[in-house]
Amino acid sequence: MFLSVFDMFKVGIGPSSSHTMGPMVAAARFLDHLRAQPFSVAGLRASLHGSLAFTGVGHATDRAVILGVAGFAPESYDAEAAEAALTRIRQEKTVSPEGLGPLRFDPESDLSFDYGPPLSGHANGLILRATDAQGDEVVQVTYYSVGGGFVLTEAELAAGQDGDAGAPVPFPFKSAQQMLDMAAESGLSIAAMKRANELSRMETGRLDRGLNRIWEVMAACIDRGLASEGILPGGLGVKRRARGIHEALQAERGMNLTAPHTVNDWISTYAMAVNEENAAGGQVVTAPTNGAAGVVPATLRYWLDHVPDAAPSRVPDFLLTAAAIGGLIKFNASISGAECGCQAEVGSASAMAAAGLCAVMGGTPEQVENAAEIALEHHLGMTCDPVRGLVQVPCIERNGLGAIKAVSAASLSLRGDGTHFVPLDAAIETMRQTGADMSERYKETALGGLAVNVPNC
To answer: In the beta sheet, which residues pair with residue 135?
Structure first.
């Protein structure tokens, strides 16, 4: 099953890839479904289930669905236009998606949160319905937001359609061991094999432009976060800290008064800048999710700004390597906090970042695999327990620590020859099993952990 680098890295909006981007994508797919019907519809309804209901308000799921049925999409999201549309929809109680005309949709009555048991297919369930002029239901489709902005219908999920099953690719590795075997046989790096797979589906210029675009959006997100201040939305009163820490670090440069470990503060600040932007609903890149969006760009920024001989021309190799590892984790386990807890989000991101950093610092395929394994292994068991369902506490700091672990994992792997005790495949399978055993209270429901033990008002 082929997962493109642009499946793992998507330009979108905060605060959540599974709870914000996914439902918006599902709504867009539903509109396309309606456009293909031989009859007209007059109204829309939606219901949120499982984790989408429990943490939906904190993750702006309701807002995403409203905008989605109005025709908005994550990749072309315009914040000012969205605010104007939301005001109009609540006043007029209609949406007007292209090609479908005005449709009745009152967010107060036509969008519901179902706090009962989740739907059978996945913890993140969404049912969209269309009605006729009399208000009778004529179309119903169930969608599942399975993490990282990926969306499947109930039928697609049942059929196991999670990825591109198109023409064969040159290096169809489905496990880390297969990846290493193919690298040894071909003499190619992981990035080179991943590039060859991508080029079997698209031309070189499109791939290179897309990779440059991904890093441009990541870098711009860091810069916005480092320049912004204030209180994050949602009611917790969380203060943006990235700008203040960054200014202090800049002031300390050249004073010879800081300890060597202060470099960790730089790494954390880059990650926090991204996740503060994500929490504020800004433009981010899923890496592989929004909740873990800060780890990969922070690690890349650390490499470019703090490591001697770092070359911007190697950024594509970093991203391709990271995407290869992310694809293995998604295919064999999960990148969804609602499925496996935060080990599947920040843990996966840290493994991806560690692999990418190891690769651009000269690591062999074996060392890259080792770096990813170290990073993932030391996130095993991490729960997803956001306070008030917001992607803020503990998510923002957690990205900083995930990036620090990524750098440490890459460094440790480069100190060895790539041989190690626990294979990456074993760590991925352990993460999957741990997620299956984990209580639902600790999987993005805000019903356990810090979410219930920290005063949130």
So the answer is: none
Segments making up each domain of the chain, as ranges: 16-158, 176-200+202-453
Q: Residue written as tokens 């209270």?
A: 441
Percent of the chain whose pLDDT exceeds 90: 93
pLDDT for 160 equals 82
pLDDT of residue 308 exceeding 80, the answer is: yes
Instruction: Please state whether the peptide bond connecting residue 117 to the residue before it is cis, i.e. omega within 30 degrees of 0.
Output: no
Among candidate residues 128, 157, 174, 135, the one with its CA nearest the CA of residue 33: 128
Strand, coil or helix: what is 131?
strand
Is domain 176-200+202-453 classified as CATH 2.80.10?
Answer: no
Q: Cα 329–429–390 angle (5° rounding)?
A: 55
* Coil, helix or strand at residue 43: strand
Fold adopted by 16-158: 60s Ribosomal Protein L30; Chain: A; (3.30.1330)
Q: What is the pLDDT of residues 107-161, one digit of tens each?
A: 999 999 999 999 999 999 999 999 999 999 999 999 999 999 999 999 999 988 7
Amino acid at 74: P
Phi and psi, residue 203, nearest 5°: -80, 160
Closest CA to 65 of 94, 104, 101, 22: 22
The predicted structure's pLDDT at residue 257: 65
Tell me whether domains 16-158 and 176-200+202-453 share a fold.
no
Is 195 in contact with 319 (CB distance < 8 Å)? no
**Spatial separation of the C-alpha atoms in residues 346 and 343, rounded to whole Å:** 6
d(CA 83, CA 425): 45
Neighbours of 263 (CB within 10 A): 15
CB atoms within 10 A of CB 169: 19
Burial 88-115 (b: 16+ CB within 10 A, else e): ebeeeebbbbeebeebbbbbeebbeebe
Please say whether the beta carbons of 56 and 48 come within 8 A.
yes
Q: What are phi and psi of 4, to 5 degrees?
A: -70, 160
Residue 179 CA to residue 364 CA, distance in Å, equals 12
> What is the reported pTM?
0.93
